[in-house]
Amino acid sequence: MIKHISIILFSFFLSVQIVGQGNILLNHASVHVGNGEVVNDAVVGVVNGRIKFVRNALVYTIRKKEWDTIIDLKHQNLYPGFVAPSSTLGLTEIDAVRASNDFEEIGEFNPHIRALIAYNVESTVISTVRTNGVLLAQSSPRGGTISGSSSVMHLGGWNWEDAVAKKDDGIHINWPRSLKRERWGERTKKANKDYREQKAEIEAFFEAAKNYHESVSKQKTDLRFLAMQGLFTGKKRLYFHAHEIQQMLDIIEFSKKFGIKYPVIVGGYESYLIAERLRDAGIPVMIQRVHSLPMREDDPVDLPYRLPAILKEKGVLFCLQNEGDMEAMNARNIPFLAGTAHAYGLSQEEAIRAISLDACKIMGIDEDYGSIEQGKVATLFVSDGNALEMKENKVTMILMNGQFIDLNNHQLELYKKYRKKYGL
Amino acid sequence: MKIARHFAYSFLFLVSFSTQSQTLEPYNGTPPSKTEMIALKNARIYVSPDRVIEKGTILIKDRRVFKVGPLFPIPKEALVLDYSGKTIIPGFIECNAPIDSPKTGRTPMQGQQSKNGAVGSYYWNTAIHPEFDLSQDYAFDEKKSKELKEKGFIVVGAYEANGIARGYSSVFALEKGQNNLLRENAVAHFSFSKGHSNQAYPSSLMGSIALLRQALYDAKWYDNAEDRENNLSLAALNKQLKGTILFEIREKQEILRAEKIAREFNLQFNYITSGDSYQLGDDLEQLKSTLVIPVKLPEAYETNDPYVAREIPLGELKHWEMAPCNMYLLSQKGITVALSSADLKAKDFWSSLQNIRSCGLTEGDILKALTETPAKLLGIEKDYGSLEKNMIANFVVYDENPFDKKAEVLECWTNGKQEIFKRPQTVDVRGTYNLIIDNEYLQLEISGSLEKPKGKLSKKTTPSPAPTKKRSLRSLRKKPIDELKQEISANCEISVNDRDLSIQFFSSDFKWKGSNSLHGKISTKLGVIEGDALLADGQWVKWSAVKSQKAAKEKKEKEEHPEVERQLNLSYPNMAYGFSSKPQQETVVIKNATLWTNEKDGIVSNGTVIIQNGKITFAGAGNYVVPRDATVYDAKGKHVTSGIIDEHSHIAIKRGVNEGTQAISAEVSIGDVVDPEDIDIYRQLSGGVTAAQLLHGSANPIGGQSALIKLKWGHNANEMLIPDADKFIKFALGENVKQTNWGDAFRNRFPQTRMGVEQVYYDAFSRARQYEEEKKKHPGSYRVDLELEALAEILNKKRFITCHSYIQSEINMLMKVADSMGFTLNTFTHILEGYKVADKMKKHGAGASTFSDWWAYKYEVNDAIPYNAALLNEMGIVTALNSDDAEMGRRLNQEAAKAVKYGGASEEDAWKMVTLNPAKLLHLDQRMGSLKAGKDGDIVLWSHNPLSIEARVEMTIVDGEILFDAKRDEKMRQEIALEKARIISLMKQAAEKGARTKIYTPKSKGHFHCNTLGEDASHEENQH
Description:
The structure holds 2 protein chains of 2 kinds.
Chain A: E1 15-18, E2 24-32, E3 38-47, E4 50-56, E5 69-72, E6 77-80, E7 82-87, H1 124-129, E8 134-139, E9 146-154, H2 160-163, E10 164-174, H3 195-214, H4 223-233, E11 237-242, H5 245-257, E12 263-267, H6 275-281, E13 285-287, H7 303-313, E14 318-320, H8 327-330, H9 334-343, H10 348-353, H11 357-363, E15 380-383, E16 395-400, E17 403-404, H12 410-421
Parallel strand pairs in A: 2-5, 2-6, 7-8, 10-11, 11-12, 12-13, 13-14
Antiparallel strand pairs in A: 1-5, 2-3, 3-4, 6-15, 8-9, 9-10, 15-16, 16-17
Chain B: H1 2-14, E1 37-48, E2 51-61, E3 64-69, E4 79-82, E5 87-90, E6 92-99, H2 142-150, E7 153-160, E8 165-173, E9 180-191, H3 205-224, H4 232-240, E10 245-248, H5 253-265, E11 270-272, E12 290-294, E13 300-301, H6 306-309, H7 314-322, H8 326-332, E14 336-340, H9 346-357, H10 363-370, H11 372-378, E15 395-398, E16 409-414, E17 417-420, E18 431-437, E19 440-448, E20 453-461, H12 470-478, H13 481-484, E21 486-497, E22 500-507, E23 514-523, E24 528-534, E25 540-550, E26 588-596, E27 603-612, E28 615-620, E29 631-634, E30 639-642, E31 644-649, H14 679-685, E32 689-694, E33 702-705, E34 707-710, H15 717-720, E35 727-732, H16 754-777, H17 786-795, E36 799-805, H18 808-821, E37 827-830, H19 838-844, E38 847-850, H20 868-874, E39 879-881, H21 892-901, H22 907-912, H23 916-921, E40 939-942, E41 953-958, E42 961-965, H24 966-992, E43 997-998
Parallel strand pairs in B: 1-4, 1-5, 6-7, 9-10, 10-11, 11-12, 12-14, 13-43, 26-29, 26-30, 31-32, 35-36, 36-37, 37-38, 38-39
Antiparallel strand pairs in B: 1-2, 2-3, 5-15, 7-8, 8-9, 15-16, 16-17, 18-19, 18-25, 19-20, 20-21, 21-22, 22-23, 23-24, 24-25, 26-27, 27-28, 30-40, 32-34, 33-35, 40-41, 41-42
């Protein structure tokens, strides 16, 4: 086991007693559980990488011998590791450098393509994301109609096997748009023209996959259909990337028709218009990047900011995600997406929940991740201020799988180097 | 049948009349006979827009109108034709007849840069070909000509719709079978569209504007220069500027853009417009141009599916509602209007016109816009445009008055020559007849239209044996006896040709099983038809029919023009979130607020800000007097700051942010293409932004000139430009300018490396120096070069550079170039490696405008760090945080907060990075950037500390105008929904009444970034 001495870097406001790493006690923490609750002065025990207990610090007596490491957090905020669902983190390094991009395979129906094995744990981008409190990412392929399978990954580790939190958690499908848009180089005259056709293609593919799944004698190995099986057994989620109301209506029907156990909408710009239906169908929404412009000229200017609060009010299960332009590097701003959602209607703890427990719930890993509760994996971080506030988010300690994580990164090093140059 | 009609047509053509006298061409045989003088009497004659004769005569001699009037003695020698019931209207004049290139004056060449492949002494850029003359080797297309005549047009001004300086139009009379050129080199045509030119330059609207201006300067110089090469283009351009000019524009804003050029060169432009000109509102009052506007109106959308209907933006709905009143609203502003039927089918022409008239115009107004006004534009008003004495006899004869009823064109008289379109059926055969044939008595009913009647033959017979079931028998008994008789019948096809009639029917019930045909002559006086029939069995028999009943009088239905409850209120701008009236300055007092003064006082609690006449008159915690007309806001617990200034923005730019086709494009200016109707202006206001520098992109080392604007939503583009602001220009370094990420097609333009970029600058500034010397040497006769003018301004410290930059090596290089040329780099933007050369920047005197935390989007940002802003600030460099992104632009307060997180800037310092510091970088800090009496009334009221994630903008004030108000915004959303519902229901009504509809296709609006190429915003991943 390796001691992560780097925690000392910021230890001037922590009293750290590093004895060992195994059993860690975090004392005097303001715990934001992740399920909407706060425990103000808490003591959190971590044993063998899992949270053993969360107790009131005032009534808990510390037996020093039981702990390898005891840290007095001095009422700093303790959060569950934030999550970046639907992200290319780990699959790309520099957008414009082709050699560094590994998130889009050729072909239309690619359920067998797996993000897992391309995940680069040593990505310098990753090291700048976790230092803002984002510790888990659903590393997801892009492109085509069915892009492939994502996996939920830790933002750290030795290799992808070591970093994975849930292997092949789901398949991503880009639902065709019901309204074609006039865009650069493609002047579409008629709306809807190919929509039925494209839907029919997807249905045909699913029919065949389901047939393969149900047939007793599988004469031939079919990689695509094999990958699809998890959708029918409930082992995998089906992530529908869609925004329009028409798309979502069709997705509700489609999921019923094919008996998809865990359908999820990713994006859902118009989900507020059919929130009740989504709720009744039990389909959760990974809400599009909160920091987005309205899609239509006439739409309210703050609609994307308010979307989480609207879905909350209507009882739809949701979380936040960050898919879009420069999504990998931008994943470090996920805490602030939650902050804006809070400014526009969610309570502080609901906002936290939307990037921790509920994200994990939607991805099916809430048994182990997403909150600071007994029995869960100790993937959590400490922030000196409110982690959802840009000016206060200051991560002073990270535990990932119960291990201390280096808070240094490429950017911080350059900063220090040039401060030194200027004698600052 | 077809043959018969064709025969009729040619027969009529032979005897059509001509009053044309002499021809040049020797005739093969005896020349056609002609009639000296023709009188058309008893017609309704529209002589001119102001004069209609209900029943009058027009006398034509030698292709001209000899006399026209209600009652006058007709000379004996005149051939008199009775035109009772017909309507005569002067032939319309189409001054907007664009044609596809019949031939290209010059053969353009493919090329990255600027080679013009033309052989000959022409302008260097093929989009400028004013010398092009359509009258050579060109005949107006027969098919188009027929379409136009069906709409009532007999004269057209045709031009080649290609390029910026497009050449001359020619005026043609649409005489059948003859190319009748009335006037060559009639009107000079211009536009802002490059057209078919294969040269890369210009790729943007601002490039087109710059190119046109340069060509006009070149023409001016060419006129005076003593020693110069021949240039046919410039010679032609000079000639054109003295005559009539028609400028085609794509949308209303371009009128104002072209007017700027007209003022600069003291020219008068007239415009071929797009049907939305009315939206210019009060800006029209200055306009002296004639506007050619389309008769074609926007089609209604299909609104059955609410999912689709809700996609239609309010702006488009409003336009659909108001567009028919374009002409009316323009006339109200005193604008002279010509109507053009371009792109409109004949069958829609009159209903569209009626729609336009119903807004409050008279027949005379409409007629004038179709005749006199276009005649004047084309310079043929002495001969064409009315039917007054001595005008050329150019008119159209209709079967009804098309202003009242559905009418058809019967004849076109072009230059006194008759062309018959249609000879109406004179005999009305419709009615009920008793017909006897082959000893059978039948009834024949002829109905349908006069031209295309239809018929039914029937016979009453006794029914066959009684039905078996008692029940049905009983029910039969109850019925009257008459109905017990069964009727047998057959539909017949009928065709009439004057007094000849033919009937064909196929029967299975009659005794002649099979096809039977009858032919007969009609005797109208007796109402009898007699003739022969060929029966199904091959026998010939005689038949006759006597009319027993006249047909019910056919009502020629009056065109239905439902009174539409139109609302003609323009909003500012005319779209969602537009104001009902132009925003006005208000007197505002905001008290009990925490003030972020950005002045010595720092952050002041319980302070007050007063704005009067667009200026801050008080800011602080002291005593103050509430002005009389003030609205007082209690801002307890809230914060007030000066407005955010975005140093690097690409919103509100029309048709292209880059003119990246050349390494240097200093001649283009964003100021020419500001788009005041970009919704992103309103969105930025909702985020507290009050001013911005709109920058050219970063596609080339020397880009274009910036526009410094205030976000004055509801105002026009010129009103947004900050008056008396210093001039700025965009430079760029690195991957974008060496086209690294543009794909393999872009490997030709110099420079391709950072090494080349340096030399571009040395070359540019050396040339600018020489240009300065040339100007001094030959002050009267030098050739104005817009590119070098801008560069010379930099050397003279009259223009300042904002340079897109990333890597320390090139930043260092550019500062060395500037040092050697004796000027200072004003601002490095992006400047993500600024922290590596902060000391050098400080020494040089450059400022920095950077991103808070962007990186990893391309190779050159590998060493970008979010601590950059705080570190530069700590080093004493004027540091700003900018957006370069329409989305981030509306939450720059959050981006400023990141300077606290990364690098530990104080909250006050962080806040200055989006307010005072950009004001300094833009040389606007004397009037913006802090809360201080005397500064511009640009302030923002925040719900919380503006650096907090919880902060929401409650009010944004620009120059004392409240342009964003969260509460009002809430109300506007409901109003938008109501207004959309109202217009959609109008659309639905229109569709039910038969209006044409189309499916709505959403236009997704892209956003410009630094490296967006071409005129359209891209959706591709951007690279900044």
